[in-house]
Write a structure and sequence with these properties.
This protein is α+β, with helices and mostly antiparallel strands. It is 43% helix and 22% strand. The chain has six helices and nine strands, in the order αβαββαααββββββα. It has a five-stranded antiparallel sheet with strand order 3-2-9-8-7. Strand 4 and strand 5 form a beta hairpin. Helix 1 packs antiparallel against helix 3. It is elongated, with a radius of gyration of 19 Å. The mean pLDDT is 83.
């Protein structure tokens, strides 16, 4: 039973580490997007554009992220205090919000060291490949917004996961493709 508790504690520490890493990387020089027009042409979700990659624009997401982490830590402590078999199942319910933490930060930015996407940072050397996928009638995002239809989704494959954003202009697609191509050549 204590082994399972330590697994859940490790998961919370991992998400806390990722969050701190993103906060630190937000202080770096941002390569893309830097203008309002560039931010308007990138989306993490089909219905809303990304916010600026700075603390003031991401303030609400940062506060919610911290509150959810505090809630999870507090609930893990309470569930651990009542250690019995019935309460053991509550660990899974307590951990459920942690899987939606990336939705709090509406962030996509290219820095000199890598890419910030939601609550994740992917360094250039951890990005294995990228591709632009057309958002056509068979795509999951088709129909959510007219600006997204017939545009592109950028998918970045890293060691352990796939990060994505929606690109709504051809110019931004070309700029992102050029940046990714440059970094891919340097990595090889």
């Amino acid at each position: 039973m204590d082994f399972i508790v330590w697994i859940f504690v490790a998961i919370v520490f991992y998400y806390t580490y990722r969050f701190v890493q993103v906060l630190m990387r937000m202080r770096q020089d941002i390569v893309l997007p830097v203008t309002v027009d560039e931010m308007a042409s990138i989306r993490r979700e089909p219905q809303k554009t990304v916010k600026a990659p700075n603390y003031s624009s991401q303030k609400a997401g940062i506060i919610f992220y911290i509150l959810v982490l505090i809630y999870i830590i507090g609930m893990l402590f309470l569930v651990w205090q009542f250690r019995n078999d019935v309460v053991f199942l509550l660990y899974f319910l307590v951990m459920f919000p942690i899987f939606h933490l990336s939705n709090f930060l509406n962030l996509f930015a290219v820095t000199k060291d890598g890419i910030l996407c939601g609550d994740c940072f992917a360094s250039w050397k951890s990005i294995k490949s990228f591709e632009f996928v057309r958002i056509d009638i068979t795509h999951n995002y088709y129909g959510f917004s007219s600006e997204v239809n017939d545009q592109y989704e950028l998918r970045l494959k890293t060691r352990f996961r796939t990060l994505s954003c929606i690109v709504t202009t051809e110019e931004m697609k070309e700029r992102l493709g050029d940046l990714m191509g440059e970094r891919e050549v340097k990595a090889q």
